[in-house]
Amino acid sequence: MKKLLILLPALLLTFAAPAQNVIYYFTNDPAQPYDGLTLGYDGNLYGTTEKGGTYNDGVLFRLATNGVVTTLYSFTGGSDGANPYAGLTLGADGYFYGTCYGGGKGASVGFGTVYKATTNGIVTGIYSFAGGTGGEYPQGGVVLGPDGFLYGTTYQGGSGNYGTVFQLSTNGILEWVTRLTAAIG
């Protein structure tokens, strides 16, 4: 009996419910965040969801550390983009930079965009992918290089339709595109 009493507290600890650390549950609007959060200079966390918003093309949101979520922007599917799979990159200029899998402007509608956003939810499409050799459908985000340029990849386009690596200025000027081929290993 003495051994059972000693084991009982250990068994209770083993089967105890885990502590609840969730501070926010996504619902159907906004929904489906594919990537992580980015800490803003203001101490809030910022992210995107692939679905939800006014046009169901995804949203940009702010998460306060107390769990309050504010939808800052609803992507329209136009020059701002649609369906941001990737998270955000914070630039030295205070803007967030990101990509959308769809959307675009002009003849480039639908191949994806690179955009910049403020902490107040002002989003501006700065580049629309043209498809084909220029790249299409960015699924990953962008990183800010030490030279001040944004670097990223597209899922398709380029030589053989295997994707591209691009370098873009923060004002939307495409500097170069490297076409990925099946030979890269």
Keywords:
185 residues, mainly beta, Methylamine Dehydrogenase, Chain H, 4-stranded antiparallel beta sheet, 1 helix, 12 strands, 7% helix, disordered N terminus
Give a summary of the structure in a few sentences.
With 185 residues, the protein is mainly beta.
Structure description:
By secondary structure, this protein is mainly beta. It has a single domain, classed as Methylamine Dehydrogenase, Chain H, CATH 2.130.10.10. 7% of the residues lie in helices and 30% in strands. The protein has one helix spanning 2-14; strands at residues 38-39, 45-49, 59-63, 69-74, 89-90, 96-100, 113-117, 123-128, 142-144, 150-154, 164-168, 174-179. The strands form three sheets. The protein has a four-stranded antiparallel β-sheet with strand order 1-2-3-4, with no helix packed on it. A hairpin with a 5-residue loop joins strand 3 (59-63) and strand 4 (69-74). The protein starts with a helix and ends in a 6-residue tail after the last strand.
**Class by alpha and beta content:** mainly beta
Q: What is the CATH C-level name?
A: Mainly Beta
Radius of gyration: 21 Å
Number of contiguous helices: 1
Strand order of the largest sheet: 1-2-3-4
Spans where pLDDT lies below 50 across 5 or more residues: 3-14
Proper CATH architecture: 7 Propeller
Mean pLDDT: 87
Number of strands: 12
Report the β-strand fraction as a percent range: 25-35%
Q: Note the quaternary state here.
A: single chain
Return the string of H and E elements: HEEEEEEEEEEEE
* CATH homologous superfamily assignment: YVTN repeat-like/Quinoprotein amine dehydrogenase
CATH topology: Methylamine Dehydrogenase, Chain H
- Fraction in helix: under 10%
Specify the biggest β-sheet: 4 strands, antiparallel
N-to-C span: 64 Å
Domain unit count:
1
